[in-house]
Specification:
Binding site for thiamine diphosphate: 87, 128-130, 162-163, 190, 302, 386
Strand order of the largest sheet: 7-6-8-9-11-10-15
Number of strands: 17
Pathway: Metabolic intermediate biosynthesis; 1-deoxy-D-xylulose 5-phosphate biosynthesis; 1-deoxy-D-xylulose 5-phosphate from D-glyceraldehyde 3-phosphate and pyruvate: step 1/1
Number of domains: 4
Helix content: 25-40%
Shape: globular
GO molecular function, one term: 1-deoxy-D-xylulose-5-phosphate synthase activity
Bound molecules: thiamine diphosphate, 1-deoxy-D-xylulose-5-phosphate, magnesium ion
CATH superfamily of the largest domain: Thiamin diphosphate (ThDP)-binding fold, Pyr/PP domains
Region (Disordered): 298-333
Largest sheet: 7 strands, mixed
Structural class: alpha/beta
Subunit structure: Homodimer.
């Protein structure tokens, strides 16, 4: 495990109460009046630690009180807390025995930046992709009821105001009252996604108020009935309906959750820890699904983050005293791929009025914001709804528009059938722009975009392309709007390219045509995407060893360049395929199948992500671990050459 420079962080600072808490059981020994101090110490710890070893900041800062209250009131880990997305769970990590390891957060071999059941029994479910907590927690609550667990197990889903708008969350809510369960949903409403939160539910939540008088009346009524032993399975529904009618009278609005028969409590101040503890104590033992609505401030307790929560979602290193963030040089530096995408799309949209942009809650992350600023009427932020985003694009394309739908590769996994059913079968000209393709680094196992080549290749009629550099990305984006070729996916990586001078005039690329980058006779390397750069370094080394290597950039995984493959087969030399995706079903598979299907006996070595889930760490560390770095490619060239002799 890598040793971290920890000079100014948590170790040197003093946290008198936090240091006594090695598990939630220690927290529960404290009197409730001490919890405010625990919260303050957690915040200070996060500021000190994350300023030096960066990660997700603002969400965890805003969730401190609810985290402390949950571990204080519930008997974790027996009771389950399911965190949605999981980027707000750093406080939870600190309270559950991982304070001393927090300096390794997001580092290779260190703590995961998200809850991870392999890391701790307190991390009850995989988190990273939004909106799964209600369904997962409901499953756990139902499992507990079916198995008549004793003592009764409480199950809590913690979900943000943006994540609850995802389709999967709605499906969970819809199903929540259909079975016997003891589910509690905590809605952590900070009126923010990563960027501004959007959508009708967001506006609804912003205007949702419940009178104090009503809340007090209901608690008292419930407590009284409980005391009189009148709350049981038979009376529960009646009480709920009675409550709802009173509430409609008092508040003059139908509560959306109560309309679904989920008891609603709130909204309460999510930073008043003692109050949250009291409310949780009151509603903890109620039967049936309940939702507690807490209003919180993203970045709470750190003024720069409160003032600009979007920039402080994951701010990188910063000075804890001033809030100054480490700035990156701009002049003469290669651009980020996302910015090449964003600026090129704007350029194309200026001259093609049919072009529209779609983002699923990631305008900044995908740089769709660039077009959004200049042509807001033609960019749609549809919220966390990758499936809807794709089907919506299908509808737009069906009636004449040219949608560019920019989604992180791993999040697009949520929309697989939408791609097939709502786009590909109808051959609609939707361009899927897959950002963060390949190994992404510190976000880890849930976020690596390594499955897309494989899962898109199997879809009939789908064009699947990956540029090796910024200029090819521009040309592919240009190509996808000049003719109607049906659906096209263009995948590109996280981070920067190589070429500061990328803004050259665009030209169309022939669909399904690769490029010979250099000729050679001993070994042929076929790569796709920016892996071409590593291949180039490996070839330079191999040439120094006296091996003559041909290098082809396939550009398209589908359709395959059959002429190019025939040329390679005719060489009669060993072939190495190189891709930054899972080997099963990707470029290596496609090339092997093609040689086999066309009767060519070619020895193929496949380099790519092995058949396992890749953890978190720096990209070069993970590439090395997967046997995909320049050294591994060089070694494969040398071995292939040897075995051919
Ligand atoms: C399926 C999916 N789409 C997009 C994302 C990227 N993403 C991570 S956090 C986030 C915003 C979450 O907002 P919210 O649920 O309100 O939590 P907050 O950060 O405000 O606490 C988004 C869009 C994701 N993790 N998963
Ligand atoms: C929690 C989440 O899913 C995002 O915040 C993600 O960490 C963003 O990663 P990028 O830094 O690649 O935009
Ligand atoms: Mg939010």
């Amino acid at each position: 495990m890598e040793k971290t420079d920890n000079s100014i962080d948590s170790v040197s600072a003093h946290y008198p109460l936090l240091e006594t808490i090695d598990s939630p059981a220690d927290l529960r020994k404290l009197p409730a009046e001490k919890l405010t101090q625990v919260c303050a110490e957690i915040r200070q710890f996060l500021i000190n630690s994350l300023s030096n070893n960066p990660g997700h900041f603002a969400s965890s800062m805003g969730a401190v009180e609810l985290t402390v209250a949950l571990h204080y009131v519930f008997n974790t880990p027996y009771d389950r807390i399911v965190w949605d997305v999981g980027h707000q769970a750093y406080g939870h990590k600190l309270l559950t025995g991982r304070r001393d390891k927090f300096r390794t957060n997001r580092k290779f071999g260190g703590l995961s930046g998200f809850p991870n059941p392999e890391e701790s029994e307190y991390d009850t479910f995989t988190a990273g992709h939004a909106s799964n907590s209600i369904s997962a927690a409901l499953g756990m609550a139902v499992a507990s009821a079916l198995q008549h667990e004793s003592p009764k197990r409480n199950v809590v889903a913690v979900i943000g105001d943006a994540s609850i708008s995802g389709g999967l969350a709605f499906e969970g809510l819809n199903n929540a009252t259909m079975t016997r369960n003891n589910l509690l949903i905590i809605l952590n409403d900070n009126d923010m996604s990563i960027d501004r939160n959007v959508g009708a539910l967001n506006s609804y939540l912003a205007h949702l108020t419940t009178s104090k008088a009503y809340n007090t009346f209901r608690y008292r009524l419930y407590r009284l009935l409980k005391k009189m032993h009148l709350v049981n399975d038979g009376t529960k529904d009646f009480i709920l309906r009675f409550n709802n009618s009173i509430k409609s009278l008092v508040t003059r609005q139908q509560n959306i959750f109560e309309g679904l028969n989920i008891r609603y409590f709130g909204p309460f101040d999510g930073h008043d820890v003692e109050r949250i503890v009291r409310v949780l104590g009151d509603i903890k033992d109620m039967e049936g699904p309940r939702l507690l609505h807490l209003r919180t401030t993203k970045g709470k307790g750190y003024t720069p983050a409160e003032n600009d929560p979007a920039s402080w979602h994951a701010p990188g290193k910063f000075d804890p005293q001033t809030g100054n963030r480490q700035s990156e040089p701009h002049e003469g530096v290669p651009p980020k791929y996302q910015d090449v995408f964003g600026e090129t799309l704007l350029e194309l949209a200026r001259s093609n009025p049919k072009i529209v942009g779609i983002t699923a809650a990631m305008p900044s992350g995908t740089s769709m914001s660039i077009m959004q600023h200049e042509i807001p009427g033609r960019v749609f932020d549809v919220g966390i709804s990758e499936g809807h985003a794709v089907t919506f694009a299908g509808g737009l394309a069906k009636d004449g528009m040219r949608p560019y739908c920019a989604i992180y590769s791993s999040f697009l996994q949520r929309a697989y059938d939408h791609i097939i059913h709502d786009v590909a079968i109808q051959r609609l000209p939707v361009t899927l722009c897959l950002d963060r393709a390949g190994i992404v680094g510190e976000d880890g196992v849930t976020h690596h975009g390594v499955f897309d080549l494989s899962y898109l290749r199997s879809i009939p009629g789908m064009i699947v392309a990956a540029p090796r550099d910024e200029i090819t990305l521009r040309n592919l984006l240009y190509t996808s709007q000049v003719a109607d070729n049906g659906p096209m996916a263009i995948r590109y990586p996280r981070g920067k390219g190589k070429n500061p001078d990328w803004k050259v005039p665009m030209k169309a690329i022939a669909i399904g045509k690769g490029e010979r980058l250099q000729d050679g006779s001993d070994v042929a390397v076929l790569s796709i995407g920016p892996m071409a750069n590593l291949v180039k370094s490996a070839i330079t080394k191999a040439e120094a060893d006296g091996i003559s290597v041909a290098h082809y950039d396939m550009i398209f995984l589908k359709p395959l360049d059959e002429e190019l493959l025939a040329e390679v087969a005719a060489k009669g030399c060993p072939v190495i395929t190189v891709e930054d995706g899972i080997k099963e079903g990707g470029l290596g598979s496609a090339v092997t199948e093609w040689f086999n299907d066309h009767g060519h006996k070619v020895q193929v070595t496949r380099i790519g992500v092995p058949d396992s889930f890749v953890p978190h760490g720096k990209v070069p560390e993970l590439m090395k671990m997967c046997g995909m770095d320049a050294d591994a490619i060089h070694e494969a060239i040398v071995n292939a050459h040897k075995s051919d002799k």
